[in-house]
Amino acid sequence: MSELVLETEKLDKVYKLGGRQVRALSDVNIQVKKGDFISIMGPSGSGKTTLLNMLGCLDKPTYGKVILDGVNITKVPEKGLFKIRKYKVGFVFQTFNLMPYLNAIENVELPMEGTKKSGDEKRKRARELLKLVGLSEREEHRQHRLSAGEQQRVAIARALANNPAIILADEPTGNLDSKTGHEIIRLLGKLNIDQGTTIVVVTHDSLIASRAGRMLFLNDGKLLAKEKQGTHLLKRELTCPNCGREIQLDDTFCPRCGKKL
Amino acid sequence: MYVKVNHLGALTRAVRNVSRRKIRALLTIIALGFSMAIMISIPAGIVANQEAVQSLSENFSSTINTVSTLIECSNSSGRGMPSGAPSFRFGQEETFINEAVVDEICTIEGVKDVVPFLEKSSEETTMQAMDTPRGSFTISRPLYTITGVSLNSTFIAEYSILPTNIVVGRNLQEGDSGVVLMPSNLTDYYEKEVDDKIGIYGESFTIVGIYESASESFMRTREVYMNISDAQMITGNTGNVSRLDVYAEDVSYVNGIADVIKTAYSELSVTTSQDRLEMYQTALNNAESTLSQTQTVAFQEIVIAIAATSLIVLFTMLYTVRERTKEIGILKAIGFSNWNVMSQFMLEGILLSLMAGVVGVVIGIVGAPFISSLLLPNVNMFPTQGRSFSGRTVNFGTALSQSATAAPDLQTVLLVFGIAALLGALGSLYPAWRAARTSPMEALRYE
After folding, report:
1. What would the DSSP string read from start to end of B136-192?
2. Looking at the structure, do residues A261 and A248 belong to the same domain, yes or no?
3. B21 touching chain A per CB within 8 A
4. Chain A closest CA to B2's CA: distance in Å?
5. Which domain holds residue A249?
6. Does residue A225 sit in the same domain as residue A115?
7. Residue that wins the pLDDT comparison between B128 and B22
8. From A51, which residue of chain B is nearest by alpha-carbon distance?
């Protein structure tokens, strides 16, 4: 059995809003194995982002626990959470959230600050990651000189900087056009296959969600019993459904027959 | 401004953050710079004040201690002025005492010697710039003063009636006539040397010696010494003297002699060592009291400057933290600790203050005289650099300006940067702490 990277037990989150209680999450149990690519789908206000914040130590549950890479993070005091965020989690946001005053490679280096890596090692690692996301030529470019898709690629490289146990992506395609959105989800898929990166994506876009290995559904803070197998990550996806020829994960169109993938 | 570096560090980020909001940074730095300039200028002014009072104090004691049997007599026009009241007064006629008085005073019981002087302004005049805290103007004044002294070898030896700092040639001596002793600044002015001739009141005199003149400053008298009978002759004052130094045989006779002179010659202004002591003491007390007031004012102003600096940093950084809330959330989400976030903002505050320190040093160097005279009380008082010098005005403001105009030494600059860093850290402490304790989730939601 594969090793569990992330596990939640009876996760509840209750907010107090103007004297009344709002239950954002209710009895959520998820198990994420190493190498999984999971999408969590749900409509707006279903608690997707709340759940992702719990998983990434940005928020604490009211009840229940989150075990990340063997550590019960609900028990970790506030002061110690930064280490978990730094080394065990990589965040990818809908709005990319790059530092506008840093260039691409510096943005990727940012999470490595305070680690034991030397300056040269950080730069080398950042360079490797930018190559991995296909932005070797854009190292020195700052946010305003990068397209939205490129910015999200930099954000993905930044999330990978400290080789985290899991990548948590909150609507990573939400601010992108559909073509670029598919490129990004393909990139995540490629990382999942090539690097074995464990990825959890929350989205309200069913097409994007379907590209994951497993699809979970959240509604009104509850995880629905139904679970679907995704399509994109299966090895057979690497052949063109039209002509049957081999294709690359980040191809949008088949290089042989030109059919949209 | 984009600082390109090989390795990203907190300092690089701080520089980039400060420079990406140029106008705000510039305005903040200028405001902080003025506060720093005040911090630099005022202590320099205080040091100048302390030195001035110290110098006064030393001069007072040395003058009082050296001539305690001296009773100075001059014409009443000099009344109210301290030791060595000059014969020259703005807008007043030079007045003289009949020489016969000398012999009469000699007969008073307890009088040891009476030394007469004749002081007369030169015919030549010069224009002199005068700086005051309220502006500069130019006045016409005599180029020098002729001082006729009684060239008696006993007087010369015992009463220091001639300058002793001879740099070239010799001093005047008993029996000299037709010769003068001149200050070096005047021989430089005339381009004369020892043994050269110089014309005074239409008569030709030979320069026998040159003495080192004191530093040039406002109302400093340039004195040309000659035999008193020569002076009387050339200035048409035969039988006249302008002041008398009466020496008692013993200190115990001084008050008695003074009383007799005051009674007999009501037109004379009589000053004893006791009078001098009192005048000096009053002047010194005034100076010390003013210094004390100045120090209090300076202290208050420095406290205000420090508070202003801290508040400027505080408000700027509070605004910055509020503006960059989302950035704080991102930093925390990608693993920055509270300390990392806090030090980032504190570093920016310190950086702003250090840049302001540079501006402050520049403003301090250029504007110290103005700042000092504007912020510290100006005080006029009578100085007392020995006898024979006129009632010279020492202006605290001027003294401050002179002191503060000097380029600050490395120690001062380092001190200012130290204070700047400290105030930057202090002012940004609360905003940075607020930034550090911001919840990452709430910060990420902030737009």
Report:
1. EEEEEEES-EEEEE---HHHHHHH--S---EEEE----TT--SEEEEEHHHHHHHT-
2. yes
3. no
4. 8
5. 233-261
6. yes
7. B22
8. B441
B299-350 confidence digits (pLDDT tens): 888 889 889 988 998 999 999 888 889 999 999 999 999 999 999 999 999 9
The confidence score (pLDDT) of residue A148 equals 93
CATH number at residue A141: 3.40.50.300
CB distance B440–A58 less than 8 Å?
yes
Residues of A with CB under 8 A from a CB of B: 53, 56, 58-59, 79, 82-83, 85-87, 91, 93, 97, 99-102, 106, 109-111, 113-114, 119-120, 122-123, 158-159, 162
Q: Are residues A147 and A185 in the same domain?
A: yes
Q: What pTM was computed for the model?
A: 0.66
Does one domain contain both A113 and A228?
yes
- Asked if B326 is an interface residue toward chain A (Cβ–Cβ < 8 A), one would say yes
Beta carbons of B337 and A101 less than 8 Å apart: no
pLDDT recorded at residue A210: 84
- The reply to whether A166 and A246 lie within a common domain is no
**Per-residue model confidence as pLDDT tens digits over B130-186:** 665 555 667 777 888 899 999 988 888 888 888 888 889 999 999 899 999 999 888
Closest by CA to B274, choosing from B29, B70, B51, is B70
A91 and A50 housed in the same domain: yes
In the DSSP assignment, the letter for residue B400 is H
Q: Are residues A223 and A252 in the same domain?
A: no
Six-digit token pair at B109? 């019981």
Tally of domains within chain A: 2
